[in-house]
Write a structure and sequence with these properties.
Length: about 270
């Protein structure tokens, strides 16, 4: 790379690489391609499941490298020779029953989804169209809590996000990692598992120096990733607490704020 170190470039998807409607702009797509062509290790780091991540990966034209999915609980290596286009390289699970029992008492009306790896979700009730990738199968509560999970999602479409956050925090969750989204949405993962923890394993696998890491994100589930990276960049549309965790702030996703960050690596 003409003396330029190969960097590990970790990109969040929603609100960072694509807008909140899932639209990828031509400018972002071109910048992603340029970073890959320059020899950097582009890595997707998202809260999305595998099945919701792969369509965006296809739009980006990315066929090699790693994707950290489910907020760090699942890591895949892209492999075009496989039927699904990837190989699962790491999963971390936890027992969802204690956390869900507390949350069911605190927010009984919330919808609950447990990830069914590579397929979709088992749900307490159907989520609104477009909010979960893959197949949704409504199952009994005992099946929701009855087996180890990589990720659990709670959603209350009718709730105020701030009130939802207050109820989640008052529930007293312990033994898990969790992040509240920009709507009344909660992702729960195994304790200590974040995008940052999964990216550290990818970094070591790729033999990238810690100082050659870049991460860009926009939400609370990106905070650990931004702190992990030598250069953490928050999007202009990020909440203040996310911006505070970053080294710098770029423009809004609707202004293609990711583009100048990627172009600076060329």
């Amino acid at each position: 790379m003409d003396g330029i170190a190969r960097k590990l470039v970790a990109l969040d998807l929603d609100g960072t690489t694509v807008n909140h409607y899932g639209v990828l702009s031509p400018g972002v797509a071109e910048a992603v391609t340029a970073v890959i062509d320059a020899g950097h290790h582009l890595t997707i780091a998202t809260g999305r499941s595998i099945v919701a991540t792969m369509p965006i990966v296809a739009k980006l034209g990315v066929s090699q490298g790693y994707c950290v999915c489910s907020n760090g609980a699942v890591t895949i290596r892209l492999d075009p020779s496989q039927d699904r286009g990837y190989v699962v390289t790491d999963t971390v699970t936890f027992d969802p029953e204690p956390a869900l029992t507390l949350l069911r008492q605190a927010i009984p009306e919330a919808l609950v989804a447990v990830e069914d790896l590579g397929v979709g979700f088992k749900v307490s009730s159907l989520f609104p169209d477009g909010e979960l990738g893959g197949e949704q199968v409504v199952v009994a509560w005992d099946e929701i809590i009855g087996r180890p999970a990589t990720r659990v999602t709670l959603r209350n479409p009718e709730a105020d996000p701030e009130e939802f956050m207050r109820l989640v925090e008052a529930a007293g969750l312990h033994g898990v990692s969790y992040a509240v989204g920009w709507t009344a949405w909660l992702d729960i993962n195994p304790e200590g598992v974040t995008k940052g923890s999964a990216l550290e394993l990818v970094r070591r696998t790729l033999h990238v120096e810690p100082g050659d890491t870049v991460a860009v994100g926009d939400q609370r589930n990106d905070i650990e990733m931004l702190r992990w990276a030598a250069r953490g960049v928050a999007m202009g549309n990020a909440p203040d607490e996310v911006k505070a965790a970053a080294d710098e702030v770029t423009a809004d996703v609707d202004e293609d704020g990711l583009v100048p960050v990627l172009r600076s690596l060329l």
